[in-house]
Amino acid sequence: AQTTRIAVTPGDGIGPEVVAEAVRCLETLRAKHGLDLEWTRFPWPSHAWHEEHGESMPADALAQLQKYDAILLGALGDPGPMDDPDRYLLPDSISLAPLLDMRKGFDQWVCERPARLLPGARQYLADERAKDIDMLVIRENSEGEYVSQGGRLRKGTPDEVATQMEVFTRKATDRIIRYGFEQARNRAADRVSEGRTRTFRTLDGRTCESQVCLVTKRNALRYWGDMYTEAFEEISKDYPDVATHHELVDAACMKFVQSPWAFDVVVASNLQGDILTDLAAVLSGGMGVAPSCNLNPTDPDMPSMFEPTHGSAPDIAGQGLADPTAMLFTAARMLEWLGRKDPAIAAAGKELFDAVAADLAENSGSRRGTHEIGSAICERLSR
Amino acid sequence: AQTTRIAVTPGDGIGPEVVAEAVRCLETLRAKHGLDLEWTRFPWPSHAWHEEHGESMPADALAQLQKYDAILLGALGDPGPMDDPDRYLLPDSISLAPLLDMRKGFDQWVCERPARLLPGARQYLADERAKDIDMLVIRENSEGEYVSQGGRLRKGTPDEVATQMEVFTRKATDRIIRYGFEQARNRAADRVSEGRTRTFRTLDGRTCESQVCLVTKRNALRYWGDMYTEAFEEISKDYPDVATHHELVDAACMKFVQSPWAFDVVVASNLQGDILTDLAAVLSGGMGVAPSCNLNPTDPDMPSMFEPTHGSAPDIAGQGLADPTAMLFTAARMLEWLGRKDPAIAAAGKELFDAVAADLAENSGSRRGTHEIGSAICERLSR
Ligand SMILES: CC(C)[C@H](C(=O)O)[C@@H](O)C(=O)O
Ligand SMILES: CC(C)[C@H](C(=O)O)[C@@H](O)C(=O)O
């Protein structure tokens, strides 16, 4: 088998700090199990790189990264040095560009963000059933509201008109919905193998072991809302074992707070998925623990990208305060993904997930620094 | 002074039930204070009307309604008779059309939804500070994502492309932002008169008694995000007494769950405001208590429309189970609005609000029917 190669892009702010802990855990696992795994660091902090080179990444960045099997990204976004307002020059649109460029350039058309309230994680909801939150939000990651088409007419005048076009294709709609149904099946199978079950009811009264909830705003954004709904109804016929459900995005956000434990798999558009995943992240304990991945499940030549849901948090950067838990869950998910080709790597991913979850459960509410948490988990891995 | 005239449109589902209680309360207040107030009922349940006339409202509905000073609307949305699937024929796009038609036709460019966790309301968040939630979400209600422009190319084929255009004008942006700042000032003044104060910090370290938080997704939806941001910065110069803040919509949703008590006035686009107001409604106790209004503050010839945030809830319709509290808070807000011309009506609005709030506080968690709650509040009003 070929060596599995990871491109590590620490990025900005707390990115390098949490990535350092992930790399230590990877190294521990590699040494322990003799994994055929290697990684290369690409230090392209967007601000510094931009100041020096006038661009947020090298021009051939995507070409460089494409040679790897996966990208482990810390965080992007750097407003500039906090103490020098004159250098507050780097808008998000530049410092975040690599993120969107990678998603697009590598056609990472799935953004997957699981939300499970694990023991030890902060519980924001009053209802005790929050402990049962266990959903997977699947966000369409390649088009929709994020196509960056539009412009500003009569810019800066009182008569200005700004437009933003949303573009949805049936092809991308079909594949994300089908992916959602496949994940629902996988989750049901995983539950069965863990001796757990969940029950969902279909509209016509049958019971199923998994569910896909489609989120749109079809009552106001009709064109793609209708296309999504039609695609969903069509594809659902291939999955009679999966219950289906439909929510409008506003109601979905409400129900995420009122009864999040009722959701299994949720499929949403790029922007609505962005919103729902941030909400789901809070419901599962907050940004400190929420993993995320941008997957291309169809083209083996395109690397998938793994990043925590959180951003670069410039306000706490450089102080060793950031919680690396989200990054470590993200690294675990990456190993699981890479493990499709190499079972030893998949097993290491599971081991990392279990170690991070155990550390979280045992240290609920304790105040520990980035490195301290990383060390505790590495120590646990080398037991 | 002229008689104040209200058009009452009960609508669908639970709409007529909750509206009946609102009308009883209005009648109680009218009789008690000899208010110069009258109302006319427009029974246009969308499904029945559609079956009989092939349209969701009479063709001249807007012309009829325009003669009134305000519209009190129950709820719209009717999937058809629950027990006759063959008649499940009325899509949301038809049964909800009157709502969007009124907002557009009467240029109700502000949608205002206050969120305050009142004593007795259900608290979904674990943190006790939830008791301090007191925000006003102001949604741009006239354009943006809701312009209904777009279409479906190669409809129904694998090559389909659906587009949806978002159109934002500087004029509508300016007026909604300015409205937000004015409301922030009003709220600060109201707090002072009630002996309460809140403190917000500006970016440059000053303290203010109110705040406006602008929500956009400017890092991904750049064109209007930038225009909103520029308008916000420009207009804020006229309100040095109001602190300013900016959130991205995904982060805003997260913070609504993590620390909603930190918000004062929130200004957002049509779709993002739709999402944020549903979330805000849950934070203040759920749909059973959340009022809403669609205002035209600039053109006295255009009636504003007052509707609860909730929908028509066909699943519980006709059973007398719906909580009329949201509708009654909405009616109170309507009287307050109409009271700009007639102080006696404004006072009645305040009286209604207080009675509904007192009823809520005293009956926390009790199971009462629609009519029972309405009666308790009418009784309180006639004391
Ligand atoms: C940084 C931003 C462009 C990005 C997005 O909107 O996709 C982020 O919010 C995310 O969810 O990964
Ligand atoms: C019914 C629907 C069209 C409406 C909206 O999206 O504006 C509703 O959600 C609301 O918030 O009033």
From TrEMBL, chains A, B:
Q: Which domain of life is it from?
A: Bacteria
Report the Pfam families cross-referenced here. Answer: Iso_dh
Domain Isopropylmalate dehydrogenase-like positions? 5-377
Alphabetical list of InterPro entries matching this protein: ICDH/IPMDH, IsoPropMal-DH-like_dom
Sorted keywords for this record are: Manganese, Metal-binding, NAD, Oxidoreductase
Q: Which Gene3D superfamilies match?
A: Isopropylmalate Dehydrogenase
Q: Which cofactor does it need?
A: Mg(2+); Mn(2+)
Q: Which GO terms describe its molecular function?
A: metal ion binding; oxidoreductase activity
By its UniProt entry, which PANTHER family does this protein fall under? D-MALATE DEHYDROGENASE [DECARBOXYLATING] (PTHR43275:SF1)
Q: What is this protein called?
A: Isocitrate/isopropylmalate dehydrogenase family protein
Q: What species does this protein belong to? A: Marinobacter flavimaris
